[in-house]
Amino acid sequence: MAKIIFITSDSEKIELEATSGSVMELAVQNGVQGIDGDCGGVCSCATCHVHVAPEHFAKTGPASEIEQDMLELDDDANEYSRLCCQIEVSEQLDGVVLHVAK
Amino acid sequence: MSENQTCVVVGASHAGVNFAFALRKAGWQGSIKLFDADPSLPYHRPPLSKAYLTSADAIDKNLLKAAETYQKDDIGLNLGVKVGSIERTAQVLQLENGEQVAFDKLVIATGARPFIPPIEGLDSASNLYPLRTAQDVENIRQAFAHSAQKRVVIIGGGYIGLETAASLKKLGGEVTVLEREQRILARVTAPYMSDYFQRLHADNGVTVATSKNVVRIETTDGENSVQCDDGTHYPADIIIVGVGIRVNTELAAQAGIEIDNGIKVNAQAQTSDENIYAIGDCTYHYNPHYQRFIRLESVQNAVDQAKVAAASICGQEVEYDTLPWFWSDQYDVKLQMVGLSQGYTDILVRDENEPNKFSVWYFKGDELLAVDAVNNAKAYVVATKFIKSGEQIDKAKLVDASVEFKPANLLSRVQVR
Fold this sequence. Notes:
heterodimer, A: 102 residues, alpha+beta, Ubiquitin-like (UB roll), five-stranded mixed beta sheet, 3 helices, 5 strands, B: 417 residues, alpha/beta, five-stranded parallel beta sheet, 11 helices, 26 strands, globular
């Protein structure tokens, strides 16, 4: 079980718990504003962009090559950006804070 | 202003569902009612022929939104309900169960249905399915699981047919794709891409036969023989029909709404009736970038038109002006496409000197129209930027894989526009 904390662009804080699946699925299932996941989680649409809290970046690790490429479409991307359909829920994520990108 | 009003949506798939949530987000305070004949909670369709088909997942692993989120946004979901007709003057929807639903604004998101060609013997064929709904996939999975020999014939070498071929091959099927044209994907890509995908399927053990016009299916004791007009025939335990779609325009047409290769809408996704909008696959809409009316079968169009319609109904000034994009996953190959290639005069191929990694660039003179990127998200992103900006590309640098793939490196020194 991992606790994952989303902070939306309206500064709403949403704490969710999960054991499996992707972080995007968790967010969509719980209606986290700003995480759309239009492509269903195959890294094709870049609508599940989050900024990992810098101090928690080790929990998620950096974006893969395809994620980094897709993130270049988004002016809001930075070094802590991830497409959260590509982050699998695991114990390692417990306590991670993810800021939903604008 | 909207609190005593009702917005009714016919069709609860990608366009209809996204619209309902976008409408609430845009500030609609009235009632929102979604109707769909499909009894399942609305789900993602693109994975049906891809990862979902090869998984053992139930459709609730694949939902567009969780059931609770509809309640949270006070969106009424009426599933398994068929709409009979639209009474435009009375602003009432007539349901097939006899009920009536009044509306102030109506959104038609009826999408499309598989085209089933008039092939002799098709109605009596055994285990013959289209692939568009969760139920279709369930039927295919069941038939596949119960088939001893798992010989699959797929009629149609478009994206649905090829994705289904890759998925059923992965599950251990003996798969044959029959394409009527001289090459697969003939309607949507350059011959270079058709050749690539033909080889990809051959390398993975799928037979792809082109110039195969299926004229008859003979079925004896549950075993089908799919017969072509050149005399060839293929045994099949399961047949998948993937030869394109027909747009669901009937409701709109019967109500006297203008139809032209789909439900015709303006830049606000509004039909010829100011209180009735249409979104998604069923629309024939103007694309400002390509300066022509088009019809698109895509998630991108469904989502973007949904947002435009929602904003427009809530009184915002918006115009639909987005660049089409698409994707397909087959085996380990991820194809990402941006733009519309129709009307291209020449193509350039940028090869990354790695297996299965390249991009095909469609030009009309110096204007970049579209790009197909194979396992190459960078190409997809660079292409998107160039198509949007209209800046000219130095074609010699583009095809030189030693030039780092960045927009700044590919800019032509001569900029006409």
